[in-house]
Amino acid sequence: MPTHFGPSLGPRQGPNGRTFDCKNAPKTREYSISFLTNASQLEAMLPEGFELAGEPVVTVEAVYMTEIQWLAGHGYNLLGVSFPATFNGKQDHVTGRFLTVLWENLADPIFTGREELGFAKIYCELPEPRVYEGQTHCIATWKGYKFMDMKIDNLKQLSEEELKASQNAPADDGILHYKYILRTGDWHNADVSYAVLTPSYTPNRVVKAKWQGQGTVEFHKSLWEDLPTTYHIVNAFAELEIKEYREATMLKAVGAKDLNDQRILQ
Amino acid sequence: MPTHFGPSLGPRQGPNGRTFDCKNAPKTREYSISFLTNASQLEAMLPEGFELAGEPVVTVEAVYMTEIQWLAGHGYNLLGVSFPATFNGKQDHVTGRFLTVLWENLADPIFTGREELGFAKIYCELPEPRVYEGQTHCIATWKGYKFMDMKIDNLKQLSEEELKASQNAPADDGILHYKYILRTGDWHNADVSYAVLTPSYTPNRVVKAKWQGQGTVEFHKSLWEDLPTTYHIVNAFAELEIKEYREATMLKAVGAKDLNDQRILQ
Amino acid sequence: MPTHFGPSLGPRQGPNGRTFDCKNAPKTREYSISFLTNASQLEAMLPEGFELAGEPVVTVEAVYMTEIQWLAGHGYNLLGVSFPATFNGKQDHVTGRFLTVLWENLADPIFTGREELGFAKIYCELPEPRVYEGQTHCIATWKGYKFMDMKIDNLKQLSEEELKASQNAPADDGILHYKYILRTGDWHNADVSYAVLTPSYTPNRVVKAKWQGQGTVEFHKSLWEDLPTTYHIVNAFAELEIKEYREATMLKAVGAKDLNDQRILQ
Amino acid sequence: MPTHFGPSLGPRQGPNGRTFDCKNAPKTREYSISFLTNASQLEAMLPEGFELAGEPVVTVEAVYMTEIQWLAGHGYNLLGVSFPATFNGKQDHVTGRFLTVLWENLADPIFTGREELGFAKIYCELPEPRVYEGQTHCIATWKGYKFMDMKIDNLKQLSEEELKASQNAPADDGILHYKYILRTGDWHNADVSYAVLTPSYTPNRVVKAKWQGQGTVEFHKSLWEDLPTTYHIVNAFAELEIKEYREATMLKAVGAKDLNDQRILQ
Fold first, then answer.
1. Deepest in the core among A18, A257, C230, D222, taking most CB within 10 A?
2. Which residue in chain D is spatially nearest to A23 when comparing CA positions?
3. d(Cα A228, Cα A145) in Å, to the nearest integer?
């Protein structure tokens, strides 16, 4: 929508029907922290048809992008929360990271991402991180209320060999989503309701450098008055027990894909 | 989306399932300019099943809202472009204003409005108007690029009688929309594709005061580099011939509705 | 600065040397809360030559302005903290409110206000208040960190007579400031160091309506990492004992003055 | 100001009196375009005591900074316009770049820079550049009005040797400014009025990489209504004849200095 002005524009369609190869662009800086929590807390977040895969390890990722082709070279930022899960459908049996929610700080990719791809994208402000004396501090706010602090310290850069090794890790099938669109006027039923996969194959993405360190992430318990559209989501994360922090990393990469290969799982 | 954190929150659902009566809130200031253009230019914007109703008069409306209940008292702004149209379905024959596009300056109402209601909402910045020596100047920008200027002058307040008379004008059936959601991975087909009506009945809305004046509105011819997601929409308006300006008004109102009565047209 | 492009522009000088009468503009909404604290805590904030006048009652005011003439009709917002004080100079003996600090959310009036007038203006974000079920909530943030919450409830509008009476209160001499500009390269000395008065006479300001209620104000204890330029100021307020809340008001006014009558105290 | 909360904080003074070495931080990306214009047009911008030095070549620089120590690791952006000039005082005879104006997108460094250092800093929005298919596009806006476009193409990275050679260029004496602070209430006189030098010596600044290309820069002729505080400055640049473009460069650097060595010229 609107559809009545000619083909709509977005990541998979530029002016005059052109597409974007996402080679050498966008540029991304990605900060990631993982922690072990309780399986039962994560299972409560899984839609029907999904189950936990392996250890209940949550990953929180903050990504800062520039030079995005379909935005004519503008950038935007993301904050995602995911954990390993398997979808067992009638036909498809795939394992990957279930992306429970993805905050973005620009509306345009939110609604195309929701409607075309089934990503659970919502909005917040994601200002440029603060980097001071070896610590990187990422925050997320909405209308002046800060609901997340992520801090990473002691980043040590991987050698060429370590970087290569880290990329040879067995890939999973991709990112798992659940697309759900309400039916207008029929508020308890859906027009759309199906699982979706972002296949992991992304040949144009190149990790240029990677760092490992330690970090913490904190979602702040919030009131409806603080976050009237999303406090229940933030609180679900605030309530997760952090049994043990795992990896904290930073990486710089170039390239992506247009997600033209996004597909419905059955 | 996400649906797996409990019932999602929005205009039609607050915490613990509460609803919002929209009585005495929100508060709105509304600036509106109409002009006569060519029927053929407007017909090109109509989805199948719709036709022009009466004179080809376009209305551009800039609305500044505060004290919105479902946002716990925050506000946001809107810019809409509409013209009179009739939908002739198998079952429904309704006449109202076809809302070709509605820009909003906050992401949260954009995606609920698109998905739940079928409004053609997209994003831009809509700063507070500039008011100087009797002229109000509203603008719309996206990432620093200004694509619209609306100016209203010579506002004269209606008397109590004139205000009452202006509200007794025969109401139409409401606002017409076309909801359209692509099918993931099947990029030429839709999951959702139907006409939608916002019925005009809104008993809790009260116009407190109204002014009439003269004005102009200008959409600026834009490049893909200026507005990579929406230049085709802005250019469709930039190309509209302005044969004659009609009414320019400002009004202040309180109250609205939660649009729970939005319905699919068949 | 810069001075080499012709006369600089600001509140006291428009294009072609014109001035601004500030009649019927700007429009302001003003929220104010007062509380009793310890005299010794306020005395610590007073520059030489100043002393407390009467009870140690602090007033925190949040002001939202639109239609400012010298900004061609744009607006901006303010947050000030003041208390009654007397300046005893060699020549001048005046009593008024000492304005310890004035946050503003636009840079342009900050530097003209500091340099031309001696106001202790600094910067923060001051978003439009949130108004929900009778409560108004004003906040102040800097780069995503919220350092103040002010909440006002139970606002009851004054009658015409009460409004008139409230304006007949004996006026003080005005607002007291201390202008201080460092000498470049000589970091322990000042180029400028003197007390300043904003005389209270402002004939073009008209209070249109006033409300009284109850409220609270909280400055949050902050770290240098939170507010690297102002944490010491915010903490000075966070540490103030609140012995008793006094008046909480809202008012709407039009008109102001260009502060051309600002004068040095000797 | 305010001075009554203890020592104020800024680039030359952190918490507990600490200073900042500016080694390895901040990180800067700098885009620069030079062009030949008319000597007489530049001479009109020079305060008394200054004269043009050599060719009338204007340089417009857009700088994007992150990891600033005195801001606890936050960043901000700058846009400066300068040309070569000599100051001939009673005592000092120095040649460098006269910085006619420096826009910054954060208020805090603007007022310390103006008052402590005499930089002609003013405010505007300076969003992250748009980089698309080899072109970098920097813009400057104020309240939604865009007054400058700078575009750089065809950037080719210098080799190690070329980079070294480019840094061996004979340095000038530094950056020249004119500090001017009005006297309160005495609107035609100044409290402060003197020339200032930023000495060029900055040992902790290291240029990591440099690129050369072609570019254009355009300041847009503006009305008072567009830029009520700065239209005369923007128009002075809009009116400059561009006889010939010179160098266009991008560079990445780390390190700076705290400008503690800023000094008055006599």
1. C230
2. D133
3. 11
Whether C74 has its CB under 8 Å from any CB of chain D: the answer is yes
Task: Give the one of C125, C146, C225 whose C-beta lies nearest to A145's C-beta.
Answer: C146
Cis peptide upstream of residue A199 (ω within 30 degrees of 0): no
Tokens of D261: 């060595």
User: Given this model, what pLDDT does residue D3 score?
Assistant: 86
Q: Which CA distances in Å does C34 have to A124, C61, C116, C177?
A: 34, 9, 29, 19
Return the CA Rg of chain C.
18
Question: Could C132 and B75 be called an inter-chain contact, meaning their C-beta atoms sit closer than 8 Å?
Answer: no
Contact list in D for residue C19 (CB cut-off 8 A) is: none
Q: How far is C262 from chain D (nearest CA, A)?
A: 6
Closest CA to D254 of D26, D73, D2: D26
Region for residue B36 given its phi and psi (left: phi exceeds 0; alpha: psi -120 to 50; beta: otherwise): beta
What separation in angstroms does the CA of B74 have from each of A141, A228, C165?
15, 9, 34
How confident is residue C168, by pLDDT bands cut at 50, 70 and 90?
Answer: confident
Phi and psi torsions of C201, nearest 5°: -60, 115
DSSP B29-60: EEEEEEEE--HHHHHTTPPTTEEE-SS-EEEE
What pLDDT is stored for residue C114 in this prediction?
A: 97
Q: Report whether pLDDT(A168) > 80.
A: no
Q: Counting beta carbons within 10 angstroms of the beta carbon of residue D151, is it exposed (0 to 12), middle (13 to 18) or buried (19 or more)? A: buried
Looking at this predicted complex, what is its ipTM?
0.95
Using the Cβ of A90 and the Cβ atoms of chain B, whether some distance falls under 8 Å is answered with: no
Q: Which residues lie closer than 8 Å to D107 by C-beta, 6 or more apart?
A: C107, C110, C122, C123, D123
What number of residues does chain B have? 266
Q: Does A67 touch chain D (CB under 8 A)?
A: yes
Q: What is the pTM of this model?
A: 0.97
Question: Which residues in chain A are contacts of D130 at CB distance < 8 A?
Answer: 72-74
C57, C81 in Cβ contact below 8 A? no
**Consecutive H or E run containing B61:** strand B57-66
- Tell whether the model's pLDDT for residue B32 goes beyond 90: yes
Confidence of residue C203 (pLDDT cuts 50, 70, 90): very high
Overall residue count recorded for chain A in this entry: 266
pLDDT of residue B168: 76
Q: Name residues whose C-beta falls within 8 Å of residue D173's C-beta, 6 or more positions apart in sequence.
A: D94, D95, D96, D197, D199, D200
Q: What's the pLDDT band for A8 if we cut at 50, 70, 90?
A: confident
Q: Which of A139, A229, A259 is nearest to B110 (CA)?
A: A229
Residue D204: how many CB atoms within 10 A of its CB?
Answer: 14
Cα(B106)–Cα(B56) distance, integer angstroms: 30
A133 contact C CB<8A: no
Please judge whether B2 and A263 are an interchain contact, meaning their C-beta atoms are less than 8 angstroms apart: no
pLDDT range class, residue B7, cuts 50, 70, 90: confident
- The Cα–Cα gap between A37 and B63 comes to 46
Phi/psi of residue B53, nearest 5 degrees: -120, 110
Q: Which chains touch B (3 or more CB pairs under 8 A)?
A: A, C, D
Question: What is the pLDDT confidence band of residue D164, given thresholds at 50, 70 and 90?
Answer: very high
CA dist list (Å): C205 to C19, C26, C198, C202, C252: 17, 9, 14, 6, 11
Contact C139 A144 (CB under 8 A): yes
Residues sharing a CB contact under 8 Å with residue C189, sequence separation 6 or more, in sequence order: C182, C183
Peptide bond into A127 cis (omega under 30): no
Structure tokens at C69: 């003439």
Residue B137 contacts by C-beta under 8 Å, 6 or more apart in sequence? Answer: B129, B130, B131, B149, B150, B151, C73, D225
Under DSSP, the state recorded for C159 is: P
Q: Which residue from A108, A56, A110, A58 is spatially nearest to A82, judged by alpha carbons? A: A58
CA of C145 vs chain D CAs: smallest distance (Å): 12
